[in-house]
Amino acid sequence: MTHSAISVENLGKRYRIQHGTAGYRTLRETLVEAAQAPIRMLRTSSVSARQQDFWALREVNLEVRAGEVIGLIGRNGAGKSTLLKILSRITKPTTGRATLNGRVGSLLEVGTGFHPELTGRENIYLNGAILGMSKHEISRKFDEIVDFAEVSQFLETPVKRYSSGMYVRLAFAVAAHLEPEILLVDEVLAVGDAAFQRKCLGKMGQVARQGRTVVVVSHNMAMVQNLCGRTVLIDQGTVKAVGPTRQVVEIYLREVGALAQTRLNDRTDRTGAAEVICTAIEILDGNGQPAPSSMSGSPLIARIHYESKLPRVFRNSRISLSVHKYDQVYFLMSTELVDSTELTLRRRGYMDFIVPELPLSVGEYSLHSFIESNGVVQDWVIGAAQLSVVDGDFYGTGRNYPAGWEGRGVLVRHSWRHVDGQPELQSILEA
Amino acid sequence: MTAISHSAELLHKKLKTVIVPDSGWQSVNIQELWRFRGLLYFLVWRDIKVRYKQTVLGAAWALLQPLMIMLVFTVFLGVMAKVPAANDPVFVYAGVLSWTLFATAMTNASTSLINSERLITKVYFPRLAIPLSAVGSAVLDFFVASLLLVSMMIWRGVLPGVGILMAPVVFGLIVVAAAGMGTWLSALTAAYRDFRYVVPFLMQFWLFATPVVYSRPPSDASFWLQTLIAINPMSGLIGSFRAAMLNEPIPWRLLGIAASTVAVLFVAGCFYFRRVEDTFADVL
User: Fold this and answer.
1) Mutate to test the interface with B, among A16, A90, A112 (most CBs of B within 10 A)
2) For A161-185, how does the pLDDT look when each residue is reduced to its tens digit (9 = 90+)?
3) So what's the ipTM on this one?
4) What's the pTM?
5) I need a labelling partner for A213 at 20 to 30 A (CA). Which of A47, B31, B60, B258 fits?
6) Residues of B in contact with A122 (CB under 8 A)
7) Subunit contact B279:A101, Cβ cutoff 8 A
8) Whether residue A313 sits in one domain with residue A216
9) Are strands A104-107 and A182-186 parallel, antiparallel or unpaired?
10) Nearest neighbour of A106 by CB, restricted to B2, B20, B123
């Protein structure tokens, strides 16, 4: 089973961005457009819209062995999804070629083609057919799908009456029972509750053990490490690293950290409506002076600058800042957690998060910024800034942590009390 | 694909997919379309199911539309404007019925791609399945509405002759004509949203240019008028459908011209569709 399942040679995808019109057009359409210039002239006054090439992927080479589970990671907009779209034949490459050996199933979105008016039963058939299953195949797996989704009582209910959890469960269940030899998955596990996510992960692992080839795009490093033997890091449309997952994830995390050097304002790897965005993060010491590095146990102010290009008022807003290391969250600060007064954002301003004593030990940490307004995610940047911590006298004893504990976990102020002599057990275990 | 044929296929050879950049003009991959016939069926089924669930009248709409048009034409054109033959409801309904088949199928198909944006940007399947399934649901409407034609013929005592054997052929040609125009327009609408406004206008224009409520123009009409009528494949098709159903002489010459026009239209439509197919996910 060492033959290749997917072989990608020199793959490239160019988008031609036209300023002034929405969406992308290819060269060929531009030619067609020239022929139909009179019609278009009615709509847009400037026919010669300025064009700009953008290579979403460039010279990508990749070999995936049959039976391998491989992860695709990278920042938002790096080209992971474009690669997956080309492999699923949704869009064509501009250069190069890709060869896939085996029946391909792709899952770029959970519940594609679900119709709200149709019942659960009807949607299982419809969605199955869209994903490439035959009617016979769906009938054969129908009970299994219903069991997996835990919706048996609601089979005859239109899915518009489903809770979002049920909807997602049903949608994933159909997809999970697709039996392709090559499965392409894009971030679908980011949905659903934790229990169901575990169930899906289990199902995917099972699929992998059956000797199928799986390509997973994910931002969830824990999932990638759990599932994938090898991982590909994609950055600005090229393959930056391929190798054992552990190593590649480390490279990625280092890079996310290094990115914080570039101006936050210019970053494109952000998620959200972007009507109001985080433009800069400053790390200040207790006196409000910029601090290149912060000290354990000392006060720290994290200042998040935001700006909106719209003359709009963003009511009911929430700004958060979370501190991460090795893709694990250490702690989170969020406006609504500590104060329930409504936060309203206008054109520009900044939010200070004031930490009286920094509970982190020596090391480099990554800050993720998040702005939300009225339940709409406005801006979410992973690795928006870097926090560099040096050892300080957190406990006031001149001692820090045992060797090997640097940068691990948070520091918690604590004390102790010692009783000498006959112990009196307080716990219930006494009996 | 049944489970057995699927595993047999696995034994014989692995399915191999080669993805390369656009290679220009290409013909329709009938084999692939056949493999996805299940999807085609489910897409038609979805359209119909959803329409029946969303509307109170459901299937009755398929009947009401041509019926109302027929009434309007019979009363205003036939009785009031005294257009010859337009006062015969059976004559008018046969024309309106076949025209409705063409118009609905083509209009549905033309907007089908932009209405399926989510599907196209998230899953692969032969894109031709989308406009074709839109034609499919119009065909079903046609069958429902035909029941009324049959009832009217019984009521008026109109007996079909041997010509009725031609009715399925003419019906097939109308469907192919709608599919050809529909695929063409769906691809154009995807690239240029202007066509969303062009299509309704085109249909109105086309309706008046086609002898739906009037008979063929007098044979002493000018050469240019004759040519114009012959070029419009719908005049031959609607006339032939009516003739086949109502036991009138079939206009063979017009039908022949229409059949060749339809064939060219369909092939050209499919080729154009295939040519731009790969860009749909990028432009939608």
Assistant:
1) A90
2) 988 778 888 888 888 787 788 888 8
3) 0.81
4) 0.70
5) B31
6) 46, 49
7) no
8) no
9) parallel
10) B123
Same domain membership, residue A150 and residue A95 = yes
A95 neighbourhood in chain B, CB within 8 Å? 21
Is A37 within a domain? Answer: no
Q: Are residues A75 and A108 both part of a single domain? A: yes
Same domain, A311 and A365: yes
- A29 to chain B, any CB pair closer than 8 A? The answer is yes
Looking at the structure, tell me whether residues A223 and A288 fall in a common domain. no
Identify the CATH number of the domain in which residue A130 sits.
3.40.50.300
Pairing of strands A4-18, A24-25: antiparallel
Interface-testing mutation among A8, A58, A103, A123, with chain B (most B C-beta atoms within 10 A): A103
Report the C-alpha gap between A116 and A102 in whole angstroms: 33
pLDDT at A328: 81
CB contact under 8 A, B15 and A15: no
Residues A225 and A370 in one domain: no
What domain range includes position A101? Answer: 4-10+57-255
Pairing of strands A213-217, A69-73: parallel
Element (H, E) at A255: helix A245-259
Distance from CA of A226 to the nearest CA of B (A): 26
Of the partner residues A42, A104, A129, the one whose CB lies closest to the CB of residue B17: A104
The CATH number covering residue A278 comes to 2.70.50.60
- A414 in contact with B at a CB cutoff of 8 Å? no
Total domains in the fold of chain A: 2
Which 156-185 residues of chain A touch chain B by CB within 8 A? 158, 181
Q: Report which DSSP code applies to B76.
A: I
Residue A47 lies in a domain: no
Q: Is residue A133 part of a domain?
A: yes
**Hey, are the CB atoms on A28 and B194 less than 8 Å from each other?**
no
Distance from CA of A39 to the nearest CA of B (A): 8
Decide if B15 and A23 are in contact by the 8 Å CB cutoff.
Answer: no
β-sheet bridge partners, residue A332: A322
Tens of pLDDT, residue by residue over B179-194, are 999 999 999 988 888 8
Residue ranges of E strands in A266-375: 270-271, 276-285, 294-295, 300-308, 314-325, 328-334, 343-345, 348-355, 363-373
Which residue of chain A has the CA closest to B281?
Answer: A91
The residue from A255, A274, A309 where one domain ends is A255
State which amino acid sits at residue A390: V
Has residue A45 been placed in a domain? no
Looking at residue A22, its pLDDT comes to 44
- pLDDT score of B172 more than 90: yes
Lowest mean pLDDT segment, chosen from A39-43, A212-216, A368-372, A392-396: A39-43
Domain residue limits, chain B: 33-283
* Residues A116, B49: Cα–Cα separation, whole Å: 12
Q: Which residues of A75-107 are buried (b: 16+ CB within 10 A; e: fewer)?
A: bebbbbbbbbbbbbbbbbbbbbebebbbbbbbb
Does A135 share its domain with A224? yes
| Residue range B98-126, pLDDT digits in tens | 999 999 999 999 999 998 888 888 888 88
Residues A212 and A148 in one domain: yes
